[in-house]
Amino acid sequence: MLLARTLILLFLLLVVGLLGVSAIWAPDRAPEDLLARYALPPSRFITIDGMRVHYRDEGPAQDSVPLVLLHGTSASLHTWDGWTDALSQNHRVIRMDLPGFGITGPSPTDDYALDRYAQFTLTLLDSLRVTRFTIAGNSLGGEIAWRVAAAAPARVQRLILVDATGYPRISTSVPVGFRIARQPRLAWLTTRILPRSVVAASVRDVYGDPDRVTDSLIERYYLLTLRAGNRAALPQRFAQESPASDSLRIRTLTLPTLILWGALDRLIPPDHADRFARDIAGGRRVIFPGLGHVPHEEDPAGTVAEVRRFLAEPITAPATRVP
User: Fold this and answer.
1) Is residue 6 part of a domain?
2) What are the start-end ranges of the H helices in the chain?
3) Are 264 and 290 in contact (CB under 8 A)?
4) Which of 67, 77, 136, 165 is in the most buried spot, having the most CB atoms within 10 Å?
5) CA dist 201 to 215, 250, 297, Å?
6) What CATH code is carried by the domain that includes residue 214?
7) Residue 302 CB neighbours (<10 A)
8) In 91-117, which positions are buried (b, 16+ CB within 10 angstroms) versus exposed (e)?
9) CA Rg, the chain, in Å?
10) What's the total number of domains in the chain?
């Protein structure tokens, strides 16, 4: 009798365990399954380095110096929807899903080095026959942006950094999804299961006001994370980081630069805005009270107003760097 009860208990525990796993089991989504939701017109595709890259090119085609927008880790070109809506009336705006993210998906060579991202960006712009441009980026995208400016200074007219990486940092809070992806022993697990709650908590963590995070926003981040190959690419990207090893290159920049930062950014502290402003000749910073790590997404209208002013300013001679 005791044996029978034990077997029944084990069976019930097994059933409960399987039900628990099934609730968080999250298979990959084929990119084709996401197109109707996240790649409707004006989305386009172009083949770069063996990848079918998802991008959008909006606004007046005759604009000779378009604005290029680069998203951050685990985001997509959709993070710039608010800015694009406001700016594409008068400016050509180009944005894309970077390798390893969004519908573009993983790199066939598994190369996620930061300078490789910069070269990818230049190659895409070459394919679009864009010779001169203003470039903006958030977080990872911000570092790619300043690396592009350092690699091709004659092509970049202005630079916009939004809570950008580039210096050694001590974060007061890191999204749980990032923490898991940085653990090699857990990397395989993240490619098989993904509780939606983990994505929700990660998105709320980078907002100054978590109440601004909507269900549709969480759903977008969640589904695009499930794009086949993206979950496997994220640990590889983190493993290939060179933590601020090239920060001295920032001091070579001498172009008009707008530095935007959320005062409540807990991933990259706001004092990094001061460092960028000191190191870049021509750098000017603006801090937004109440906003977090993605101020352009959290408050598009408030942040894009500064961008409008910046783009309207005349180009002047490079300023003298502050010692």
Assistant:
1) no
2) 2-24, 31-38, 81-87, 114-127, 140-151, 176-181, 184-190, 196-205, 215-225, 230-239, 271-279, 295-298, 300-312
3) yes
4) 136
5) 12, 32, 16
6) 3.40.50.1820
7) 14
8) bbbbbbbbbbbbbbbbbeeebbebebb
9) 21
10) 1
What DSSP string describes 56-112? Answer: EEES-TT-SS-EEEE--TT--GGGGHHHHHHHTTTS-EEEEPPTTBTTTB--TT---
Write out the two tokens for 280. Answer: 């870049």
Q: Which residue has the tokens 């300043």?
A: 146
Which residues of the chain are modeled with pLDDT < 70?
A: 1-25, 187-188, 243-245, 317-323
Range of the domain at 41: 31-312
Residue 212 lies in a domain: yes
Is-contact 224 102, C-beta < 8 A? yes
* CB atoms inside a 10 Å sphere around CB 46: 14
Q: Is residue 15 part of a domain?
A: no
Structure tokens at 283: 């750098």
Residue written as tokens 């000749």?
281
Instruction: Give pLDDT, residue 116.
Output: 96
By the 8 A CB rule, do 102 and 34 touch?
no
- One-letter amino acid at 96 equals M
Q: 58 Cβ partners below 8 Å, 6+ apart?
A: 42, 84, 88, 92, 93, 94
Q: CB neighbours (10 Å) of residue 18?
A: 11
- pTM of the entire predicted model: 0.90
Phi, psi (degrees; rounded to nearest 5) at 79: -60, -20
* CA 110 to chain centroid: 18
Block residue for tokens 């091709």: 152
290-317 pLDDT per residue, tens: 999 999 999 999 999 999 999 999 987 6
Is-cis flag, bond preceding 42, omega within 30?
Answer: yes
